[in-house]
Amino acid sequence: MKSINDIFRDIVNNTAKIYGSNVSYMFGDWEYIAGQLTEWSQSHETSKLKFPIICLYSPYIEDRTSKIPNASLEFIIMVDTRKEYLNEERERVSFINVLRPVYDAFIKSILSSPDIVNEYNGVIPHLYTENYRYGRKGVEADGKPFRDFIDAIEIKNLNIKIKNIKCYGNRI
Question: pTM of the entire structure?
Answer without folding.
Answer: 0.89
